[in-house]
Amino acid sequence: MKNSGKRAAxxxxxxxxxxxxxxxxxxxxASEGIDVYVLILGQGLAARGKSGSALTxxxxxLRVCGQKANKAVGSYKVVFLDFPxxxxxxxxxxxxxxxxxxxxxxxxxxxxxxxxxxxxNIDHRICADAVLTATRPLPGNFVRSVYAFEVLSSSEWNFxxxxxxxxxxxxxxxxxxKKKAISEYTSEIREYPHPRSLKGVEALASYRGxxxxxxxxxxxxxxxxxx
Length: 227
Known about the structure:
The longest helix is centred in the N-terminal third of the chain and has 22 residues, at 52-73. The chain is globular and about 45 Å long. Helix content is 40%, strand content 19%. By secondary structure, the chain is α/β, with parallel strands linked by helices. It has six helices and seven strands.
């Protein structure tokens, strides 16, 4: 695949967050000739009680699923790190921030999509803090915009601190790609009425579409935009 020169980054805490949060937008950007690089900080799965060889095998399978999911939406490259699952608060924030800084410096994206600081999941909040620190607007900074996305089974469960978007991206032509991608995460997908289900994914995209006069949309909070 030839690099287009136009670059965006998606930085997520766990495998599947990138698809739940902005899979349709990744697909749309890819179709518009933007190379989308994805960084996933945490291992995933470890918090569910697996250990030893069973965990090693499951993590390997999860990364294969992640590669397939990102291929389905046209991501240019996906990078997996090994920070502990649901334990990012046990790691010095500086270490996570430096990993994010290194990733950003290597690709120089103009726009970044990441988690909301209002999510229930602690890893999501720490990821958001690391990205904000790594993209602080110093002179010569090449990141022109930062957007926060929502993640089903985290954003809507933080009662009293709801995600309040102000940017809506039309993914009507890309909802099928998003659903195909999330389907690749076989260990993460659930049966309806769990929010992390195919019907849940489509329902949220439909609701965000209703809010913005579109068939399907993904919603974001504009954290910072520099023109």
